[in-house]
Amino acid sequence: MSAAATRRIGRRLGRAAQPATCLALVGPLGAGKTQLAKGVAHGLGVPGVVNSPTFIIVNEHAGRLPLFHVDAYRLTDADEARQAGVFDERQAEGVTVIEWAERLDGWLPPDHLRIEITADATLPNLRMLRWRATGPRHAHLSQVLALSETP
Ligand SMILES: Nc1ncnc2c1ncn2[C@@H]1O[C@H](COP(=O)(O)OP(=O)(O)O)[C@@H](O)[C@H]1O
Ligand SMILES: [Mg+2]
Prior knowledge:
alpha/beta
């Protein structure tokens, strides 16, 4: 599995995503969260390049559905997240991808898809994805991941 494979999986998620999708990405620096987010953007038809919104906490992109790309790395509590605009009512119409979602544990929308990415120190291009839908809205995206071939 390569960065391109991770982007491909993101693209499938982006194509299948419905309004009020929330993808909670968990994994250390360099895991591939942004690669997955880039794929989601592509799948949503977002033109141009999507990078980590490191200095701005939320980046919004126009696509088939609006994409809200969140980097929660610097957030320490829910108040800070609220002030930074992490939770926006417009997300009900769009797709939210949250990098460092573990920082927001307990404050995420109750129905989301949690995707954990882990790397293997001995195999630099290999990643393991584990995912879990926390509610019925995301069950179909869980299926999309399950049916993705892993080249
Ligand atoms: N299978 C893979 N999936 C995702 N990224 C990979 C993979 N193999 C190698 N990489 C590399 O790992 C890095 C992941 O970076 P990035 O997506 O920015 O991580 P994060 O956002 O989690 O900090 C990129 O340089 C990418 O090319
Ligand atoms: Mg990133």
